[in-house]
Amino acid sequence: IDDLSIKKAIVFNGGMLLLDNIEDKEWSKETLAIAEMNIEALNKAESILRHNYAAEIIHRPMPYMLYLKCDSPSTMHQEIARLLDEREVIVQHDHRKVYLFCTGIDKGNAAYRYKDKMKIEIDVAAGDDVMDIPMLEHARFAFASRKIAPLVKNLNLFVFDGEIISDSRS
Cβ(108)–Cβ(135) under 8 Å? Predict the structure, then answer.
């Protein structure tokens, strides 16, 4: 964020808002309130995953989310879907990780919360994976990779050929 001089960023799938690279504590408190009803389900999912997978691939950076780093996220997602009830936790994957979130922690909800908090419209959103689609629906203009473009309902859709626009360092 510092390298790009970005003043505001929503991270952790919408769970945290950074203002000048500092966590907005009010936003984080609201996130925990949204996730509260489902944290126990995520705890149960983590226990099941720790029983079935190597501990070093499982990461829990926030109470409302966890992820697994793996070589084949699509295959891992299918395996996890067989172990868990996806009605209790959201299970998604991208090109390098499988993510589990408490219900209500998603980029679409974050976009809605941000618009409400800042009293502004979101002009532009860009995404390259299905986790980005709910956010793309809240922007005036959506830039989506060709891979997900058919799933995006935003009338002001622009399609790009690249696939990976997210930070690949973590």
Answer: yes
